[in-house]
Amino acid sequence: MPTSLKITGQIGDASWIRRMFEEGARLKQLHGEDNVFDFTLGNPVIEPPPRLQQVLEQVVLSPRPGMHRYMPNAGHEWVRAAVAAHLSRVHAVRLGAEHVLMTCGAAGALNCVLKAILDPGDEVLVLVPFFPEYAFYIDNHGGRMVLVETDERFGLDVDAVRRAIGPRTRAMIVNSPNNPTGRVYDRPSMEALGDVLRRAEEEVTGRPLYLLSDEPYRAIVYDAVEVPSIFAMHRHCVLCTSHSKDLGLAGERIGYAAINPAHLGADKLFGALAFANRILGYVNAPALMQLVVAELQEERIDPLLYRRRRDMFVQGLGEAGWPVEAPQGAFYLFPATPIPDDLAFANRLKEKNVLVVPGRGFGRPGHVRICYCVPEEVIARSLTSFRAALQELS
User: Fold this and answer.
1) CATH ID of 66-293, from 3.40.640.10, 3.40.50.300, 3.30.420.40, 3.65.10.10
2) Tens digit of each residue's pLDDT (9 = 90 or more) over 166-225
3) Structural contact between residues 25 and 358, judged by C-beta atoms closer than 8 angstroms
4) E-assigned strands of the chain?
5) pTM above 0.85, yes or no
């Protein structure tokens, strides 16, 4: 066998997202691009803000000496200072360059943090439903994922978190706005979570219990919903994010990890993160994109463009006989399926050339994820196919 047993098994269990995306590519070859409606992959369709092109041209056409060379593993200090200044304003907490590590996206940030804090057998709490790659990230560094159920509307169940904490619990990952549900965890829930984690540090774990906030969708919220600052919730927290969604730069792989300045021993954690960045093979975040995003910290795509797509889908599916709750953020719907078997329902939609992802891929069967970061005309044209599938089932 050319690959390890472990990787062979993981490939077999790998993301339903990619599996359905690849099926969509096959169907497009058979039926034509315009006749297949692919809502599988969270690949941003909104182009970056116009200022990105201006800054990129300025950086490329006025090169500074050495700008393509290695830099410290944490990234350019002045870039980290620019990110820290932005975070200080948004979160009302004073961060400096010494709290920020530039990374290859949020995935790179999470892997660096997990590498830095986990010993073999340590446990990481993950809320269900969850981004499926978390399981592999945790396993990469010898950890064990412990799933914690949310409530019936995907809200944070603090009592369930309390019950899940044990002596080996080392961290908890929170993703808000959430992929796949679009749920934003409100301030009272997050404050209660912080209280639970602090008490557990004293009474159960006897060491820091890290709260890792995965926030690539933070800027994509609707209807004046607030995303509470993670730094106000728990001393031992790290914000992990990227500019994949808020600037539409998914393919550029640029993000960062930011340590709570109130963290006791923040300097040691920062050193461990920089070391992890190097030995995991990232070495440093892309040099060119560091220079660009340093000038774009106050720029964001317009979330109203995604809200319009959300509203089109919610209204259209409701009129087709499938009531769907409007998410608070991100760009995903995660409705319960009209029949109990989410895979069977996804296959029924596939017969109509509509691609969605079964909820079992996110740990919550009986649902599907519908990604609406697609052109508006794709949503409009797909509604006929959704309606036909629903009528057949009824």
Assistant:
1) 3.40.640.10
2) 999 999 999 999 999 999 999 999 999 999 999 999 999 999 999 999 999 999 999 999
3) no
4) 37-38, 100-103, 123-128, 144-149, 169-175, 210-214, 237-242, 255-259, 332-333, 354-355, 357-358, 368-371
5) yes
For residue 357, list its beta bridge partners: 369
The CATH classification of domain 5-48+302-393, taken from the options 3.90.1150.10, 1.10.630.10, 3.40.50.300, 3.20.20.140 = 3.90.1150.10
CB atoms near residue 299 (< 10 Å): 17
Q: Where are the chain's structural domains?
A: 5-48+302-393, 66-293
Lookup: tokens for 85: 């200044």
pLDDT digits 0-9 by tens, 250-305:
999 999 999 999 998 999 999 999 999 999 999 999 999 999 999 999 999 999 99
List, for residues 82-109, the tens digit of each pLDDT value.
999 999 999 999 999 999 999 999 999 9
